[in-house]
Amino acid sequence: MKVEYLNPIINATVSVFQNMFNIELERGTMQVTTESISGKKANVSIGVTGQLKGSIVFSFTETLALGIVEEMAGMKMNQLDKFVTSAIGELANIISGHAMTNLAGVGYQCDIVPPQINVGDEQRIYMATEKILVMPFTSRFGVFDLSISLQEVK
Amino acid sequence: MIWKESYKIGVEEVDRQHEELFRRFSEYLRAVRGEDNLETRTAKIQETLNFMGEYVVVHFASEEEIQRKYNYPNYAAHREIHERFKAEIQRFVEAFQENPHDEDLIMEFSGKLLTWLINHVAEEDQKIGTYVSSSKEVCQ
């Protein structure tokens, strides 16, 4: 996996959080893993097609997912119900849409498919490429991971 | 939803409409997420959908008119976002009319709409504001 794929996606994540919530995400240390990742409570998976194929997964802790939706709705959220998961699914969708625009800017024309949302404890998520890059982010809402598994279509 | 001064784009008509959209959608959220009985909630959802269906058309037209006036370079892409959004609302309206008591459908649509609205106002529309104010400076 090339670094050219990564920065457009990481930058899209940072800019959407900045614009929507006025918060600066703190980047952790990038980790490389193989085959699968250990998810968090709410995982949103976005498929990528086109010149790159694979997926992007956003793994949110429950605290973070509830915190973000509370901030947007201005109401208390008590659990990861359909409303909350749909709201964070759309957030991941928007970030990924921006990421595709950024990728097009560096020469990769790609599309995304609608988000798949999985909620549950101790989830293991299998991804398409052998190597998966995981970028942990910290914010005032809590932590989340951005996992990227993409390969060039020959 | 909490309206923030930072959401303003500096075009009075659009800012007023955004604030109204936030106010109405907040009322809707309180009804959808509240403890009222099914009939009351269904009535509120129907009322909001009627309102959104009409108001969003007016509001998007206002935004698009301003973009045309200032030759906004991303006009076509922005208009496409509006069209997709209108189609999405229409799809939900039809699904809701078929199954007005489908709780999952209502919650899924409402959650998605919440994020979409905030992103559109806090991010996409800000680009119009920035462009319009820089155009005004050039003209002066």
Write out key terms for the chains shown.
heterodimer, A: about 150 residues, alpha+beta, 3 helices, B: about 140 residues, mainly alpha
Compose a concise summary of this entry.
The complex is a heterodimer of chains A (154) and B (140). Helices cover 36% and strands 40% of the residues of chain A.
Ranges of chain A with pLDDT <50 over ≥5 residues? none
> Mind summarizing the main beta sheet of chain A?
8 strands, antiparallel
| Coarse shape of chain B | elongated
| Largest sheet: number of strands, sense, barrel closure of chain B | none
Return the string of H and E elements of chain B: HHHH
**DSSP strand count of chain A:** 8
Average of pLDDT of chain B: 89
The pair of chains with the biggest contact is: A-B, 21 and 24 residues
Q: Approximately how much beta-strand content do the residues of chain B carry?
A: under 5%
Count of helical segments of chain B? 4
> pLDDT below 50 for ≥5 consecutive residues: which ranges of chain B?
none
Order of helices and strands of chain A: HEEEEHHEEEE
Radius of gyration of chain B: 16 Å
| Count of individual beta strands of chain B | 0
The residue fraction in helices of chain B comes out at: over 70%
- Strand-pairing-aware structural class of chain A: alpha+beta
- Gross morphology of chain A is globular
Number of helices of chain A: 3
Q: Looking at the chains present, what oligomeric state does this protein adopt?
A: heterodimer
Task: Tell me what you see in this structure.
The complex is a heterodimer of chains A (154) and B (140). With 154 residues, chain A is an alpha+beta fold. In chain A, 36% of the residues lie in helices and 40% in strands. Chain A has helices at 3-21, 62-73, 82-105, and strands at residues 26-27, 31-38, 42-50, 52-60, 110-112, 116-119, 124-139, 142-152. In chain A, strands 1, 2, 3, 4, 5, 6, 7 and 8 form an 8-stranded antiparallel beta sheet that branches. In chain A, β7 and β8 form a beta hairpin. Chain A starts with a helix and ends with a strand. Helices cover 82% and strands 0% of the residues of chain B. Chain B has 4 helices and no strands. In chain B, α1 runs antiparallel to α4 and α3 packs antiparallel against α4 (103-139). Chain B is elongated, with a radius of gyration of 16 Å. The model of chain B has no long low-confidence stretch (mean pLDDT 89). Chains A and B meet through α1, α2 and α3 of A and α1 and α4 of B.
